[in-house]
Amino acid sequence: xxxxxxxxxxxxxxxxxxxxxxxxxxxxxxxxxxxxxxxxxxxxxxxxxxxxxxxxxxxxxxxxxxxxxxxxxxxxxxxxxxxxxxxxxxxxxxxxxxxxxxxxxxxxxxxxxxxxxxxxxxxxxxxxxxxxxxxxxxxxxxxxxxxxxxxxxxxxxxxxxxxxxxxxxxxxxxxxxxxxxxxxxxxxxxxxxxxxxxxxxxxxxxxxxxxxxxxxxxxxxxxxxxxxxxxxxxxxxxxxxxxxxxxxxxxxxxxxxxxx
Length: 260
What we know:
Elements: E1 2-4, E2 17-21, E3 26-34, E4 37-41, E5 44-48, E6 56-60, E7 63-66, E8 69-70, H1 75-117, H2 121-140, H3 155-184, H4 187-235, E9 250-257
Antiparallel strand pairs: 1-3, 2-3, 3-9, 4-5, 5-6, 6-7, 7-8
Helix pairs in contact: 1-2, 1-4, 2-3
């Protein structure tokens, strides 16, 4: 089963859309799974899998094709497929927009950490900016990343994880060095280090919190759309030649309430 993380906070691609977190600590997340990779052909959507049957599912305009043959759909199922297609067409640009914003928020956070902890902030920040540009180019080249091509693949994590893995040791080393210096430093130098840390924390609060909060209603709407798509998928009367339901995707909704 391919598993995709709809990312709201990029540190990093954890598998959940952070849809809502209200004043009472109530939190909703949506995990989406699909067996299929998604492509488009003209005005139709095409779902494929390398192992398993059907190998290819395509749909558009209320019609459904299974491995090249049109499926006999009832009028009700034709309407369901039109609704599913409509939701998917709206989902893809929404998903692209929110993920790009989440990536930008994540890199903003990493940049402030680099400024606060790196032994060579200018070099680290420049490196992060290059990495961010590369990440966005890769993401824009695969707008339907929600449906990965490899088992257990997460396209966003595949783009971001190497960047973080490369960045963390550098910052960790600088942080350890700074901590050692603080142990043996005089009072004036120690206060300067503390001021540097405070500045980093303030910058993170001012640049990250408001933007992350602004993503919440967008994520909530996207989570709702995914749930509607899952409900439409589950309502289809059509069965595959094997007798099994088609199951284009599965959405797992989790609700938790933080303890006071």
